[in-house]
Amino acid sequence: MEVVECEYVVRGEIVINAQRLQEELQKKPGSHPSVEILNCNIGNPQSLDQQPVTFFREVLALCDYPTILDRDETHALFSVDSIARAWQILDQIPGRATGAYIHSQGIKGLHDAIAAGIAARNGYPCKAEDIFSTDGASPAVHMMMQLLSRSEKDGILCPIPQYPLYSASIALHGDHFVRYYLVEEIRWGLEISEFKKQVEDARSKGITVRALVVINPTNPTEQVLAEENQRQIVEFCKKEGLVLLADGVYQENIYVAHKKFNSFKKIARSMGYEDQDISLVPFQSVSKGCDGECGKKGSYMEVTGFSTEVREQIYKVASVNLCSNISGQILASLVMNLPKEGDESYESYVVERYGCCLKTNSINTFAYWFKNCDELIDFKEGGHTSFEYGRYGNPITKVLERKMSELERAETTLFVSSGMYVSCAVLSALVPTGGHIVTTTGCYRKTRMLIENELPKRGIKAVVIAPADMGSLKRALCENKVNVGLMQLYAGVPFIANTSWYDKLSLSAFYLHGAMMRSCKFYMQSHVA
């Protein structure tokens, strides 16, 4: 019954249909208008051409094939620090075999590296024996839900909106999904009164709330919890005796300068609470962050604040699955112990991980929304932010430019934030003093104002013609040494609809005579579609 009630739409009907279409395209190319299916149902950046970090891949390759470590040619193919790290990791693996079974909790030496990284981040000690490695964060969540489930009268407090893993896992184990609601009006923040209300309501129905799930940064609402909110949550869990399940898999994906990730363990320790005061289980995964190593399934949870008897039960559940994969554990240890300045891999690591995975300037063009002008003014004065994008790294512009160049068969493509910027950049950079341009009466108003009011001050002459008036265009180009033909291909009645193939050939001829043609192709494509 629990399986029937369980729903996980992230991998549901739409994905099944997409797979069917992909198979049809492979069997019979051209059977559908699309030539490729892009699966966007789940974060999976490497399937969309994000490249893995070279350092990570070198270490994994050397660990999987250690016989090449002693060969001279290996030093010409791999960085010195990758080789050293591979030796260090192999020394921690029984038999130096990445294909062997290992301890059910994970490899102690790799957990030492993870614990050291956690301690450095939090500023508080972390013990390797508290780390449990899992094949992705989802199995860790399932494990805790299974352990917390005693009867159908138990419940887990979860956020709405939420990532459907939690509702699905709770349904599978026969517990009650007790909702608490994030508040959109305070940027999807939390109100502690909402926790109290939902717990009291659950108890009135005979439900025992066992744990509280908090996703920070939030998924899917993409917010970073305020530190004060986190303190309230810790205090609430301590008072109510709830296990705090802290999903922090997007902790690296914070792109606003005034926000930072604080783990709940750090918050709890800063409040003076130790292991005996609160039960806490944070989840982390290499599938997220800037790396997107989804297929490697490298994850872990840090289990603190449980008695020896309970920890034995956690280990028992882990041992039923034998062990998690070694490659994922290696990656998790690498992410928590990255190349440092002075290492051979450091420069390439920085370029690949931060130069190719995220770019703040791109995000700022669409990361915010405002309900009214007051909020916009407040934002401009530095007092207001909205979406903070606690999710995957965003591709820098060169990834988009490369893709667009391939699609348009262009030599190069320049990606900018607006069409007005393009017009200003082209006119300012390419039209010299004494030059001439041609535009149409259908040109954008702001661009037209620039042409008519600002360019004459620079000694640039402009000729304005009616849309699709090829005769006037020809005369203007012949009578003047035109540097730029600034043609808007969408103006009331689209220019393209009034332009014959002969006229398009004429435009090409003007280009061959030295006039550069700039068209607003975005709108042309929109009209044709």
Structural class: alpha/beta
Mean pLDDT: 78
Could you state the CATH homologous superfamily of the largest domain? Type I PLP-dependent aspartate aminotransferase-like (Major domain)
How would you sum up the major sheet? 7 strands, mixed
| Rg calc | 29 Å
- Please give the CATH class of the largest domain: Alpha Beta
Subunit structure: Homodimer.
Keywords: Aminotransferase, Pyridoxal phosphate, Transferase
Cofactor: pyridoxal 5'-phosphate
Function: Transfer of C3 units between the cytosol of mesophyll and bundle sheath cells to maintain a nitrogen-carbon balance in the C4-dicarboxylic pathway.
In terms of topology, how is this protein built?
Elements: H1 2-5, H2 13-27, H3 54-64, H4 74-77, H5 80-90, H6 108-122, E1 131-135, H7 137-148, E2 154-160, H8 165-172, E3 176-181, H9 192-204, E4 208-215, H10 227-240, E5 243-247, H11 264-270, E6 280-285, E7 298-302, H12 308-320, H13 326-335, H14 346-355, H15 360-364, H16 373-380, H17 397-408, H18 419-430, E8 436-440, H19 445-454, E9 461-465, H20 470-479, E10 482-487, H21 501-512, E11 516-519, H22 521-528
Parallel strand pairs: 2-3, 2-4, 4-5, 5-6, 8-9, 8-10, 10-11
Antiparallel strand pairs: 1-7, 6-7
Pfam family, one: Aminotran_1_2
Domain Aminotransferase class I/classII large: 96-337
Cofactor: pyridoxal 5'-phosphate
